[in-house]
Each structure stands twice: as structure tokens, then as C-alpha cells.
Amino acid sequence: MPDRTGSPDRTAAPDSTASPRRSDATRTAILHAARERFAADGYERATIRAIARDARIDPSMVMRYYGSKEGLFAAAVAVDLKLPDLGAVPRHEVGEALVTHFLDLWESNEVLTALLRVGVTNQAGAERVQDIFRDQLLPVARAVCPDPEQVATRAALSASQLLGLALARYVLRLAPAAALHRREIVAWLAPTVQRYLTAPNP
Question: Strand, helix or coil at 8?
């Protein structure tokens, strides 16, 4: 409001959105640095100090936001696959639907790539991948598997194709895998995933 001279008040409070923006940017920087560091060093060797240095912040800020290395790791590899309801997909299209969904995820979410890199380098990362498999992929496979006793096996076989592709294309960046067009990947992989999930016993 104007002061007694009629001039605008220059002591008004700063934009209240500035602090939340800085907070979000700091969290993003911490999580990005943590994923890179966990993937490179493994859970045991990665340190809060190294992660803070990579994020160019004080280590106390990491502890302020995440409390501990365990809390930071859980946040860094928190993943919701948002898998489609295959029970609502025509049965002959479930392989294509799942492969297409995972391609969308891998290409839009660096967390998944980081999780895969961490999962192949240390036990904590592997256990997180196992949790995601159990909690998110098994229910999807259960909706279409013809034999309830084979749900876990069929889901694991499907995961071997999807994770194998991701490892070759997005982590190792093997040239032939990286060069494949999405349509080619779906054409190659979808029938195999389809067979794993819905075909009669081999």
C-alpha cells in the first residue's frame, strides 16, 4: 500500500512462491544426484556428503529433506509403474499394451533407468526391483494368466524381456538396440510377452 507520501510501499513481503520453487529445485537436484551416485557407487558406498557435493548443496540440506540415507534411497527409487488394467484390454492385445506402456515409461522417466542401474549393482537396489515386481507386475499378470499357479513364473518371464530391453537400450546403450524404432520393438517383443502371459503351457 502507499506510504504517507503517496509512494508505493517498498517493504512488501517477497513472492511467497519463491521459497517453494527453490525447495522443489533443491529436492530435484538431490534426487538426481542420489540416483547417479547410488548407481555408480552402490548403496553401501554412496555417502550423503558425496551426494550433496554432486548436487552442489550442503549435506545438512539432504538430511533436512530426507532424514537419512535410507530415506533418501527410498525417495530416489520410488516408482509407480501405473500399469494398465490388462483385464480391460482385448486378450490378443495384452502383449502389445504392456510393451508399449513400458516403452513410454522408460523414455519419459529417468527414475526407472536409475533404478535398473542401481538394481544390478547392489542388494538394496535389487530388493527394490523385487518389491516393484511383487507389488505391481504380479497383479497385472494375474488378470490374464490362464493358470493361477503360473502367475509368478509368467510375470518373471515377461519382466525378463522388458528389463532386458531396458538394460540393452537405455543403460548399456547397445547401438543396435538403441537404433530400433518403437514400432520395431513392439513388433519383436509384444508376441513374446503375449505368449508368456496368455499362451497355454509350453
Answer: strand
Cβ(19)–Cβ(25) below 8 Å: no
Dist. CA 117–CA 50, nearest whole Å: 18
Distance CA 19, CA 14 (A): 10
Instruction: Supply 202's cell numbers.
Output: 509350453
**Beta-ladder partners of 8:** 2
Q: Which residue(s) pair with 2 in the sheet?
A: 8
Cα dihedral across residues 52, 55, 60, 65: positive or negative: negative
Largest CA-CA distance found in the chain, in angstroms, rounded: 89
Q: Is the pTM of this model over 0.70?
A: yes
Q: What is the DSSP letter of 24?
A: H
Show the CA angle centred on residue 86, arms to residues 169 and 167, nearest 5°.
15
**CA within 13 Å, CB half, 12:** 10
Q: What is the pLDDT of residues 150-187, one digit of tens each?
A: 999 999 999 999 999 999 998 899 999 999 999 999 99
Residue 145, phi then psi, degrees to nearest 5:
-70, 130
What whole-number distance in Å separates Cα of residue 30 and Cα of residue 55? 6
